[in-house]
Amino acid sequence: MTCSRKGTDNMTGTVVQNKFGLVDGHCYSLLRAVEVTDDSGNPVKLLNLRNPWGKFEFGGDWSDQSPLWDQNPNLEEELGYVRDTTDGDFWISLTDYCDNFGDVTICSAE
Question: What is the pLDDT of residues 44-67, one digit of tens each?
C-alpha cells in the first residue's frame, strides 16, 4: 500500500516540503494502521509510513521529534517504535494523515 501528496515530485531539483516536512507530490509506503490505547486510556489511531528516500520525515504529533512518545512509553514498547530521524520511517495520527495525504494505492499480486 502506498499514499501520496498532491504536487510535483522533483527529486532532481529543489524538494518542496510542507510545514511538517512532507514532500509534495511524493509517494510514501503505508506500512501499518493501528488503533491503540495511550497511557491515559484514550484511543489513538496511528499510521506507520515510510519515505523510500530514507529522509524527509513527518515532523508533527507522533513523529520522531514528538514528546507524545515520552508521555506514552507503553505505546512505544507495544508498537516497537524506534526513534530514528534518518530512516524515513515515521508514525502519524489518522487526523494528520487525512490532512496531509490525498491518495492511497493498493496493489494486488493477483
Answer: 999 999 988 777 788 899 998 899
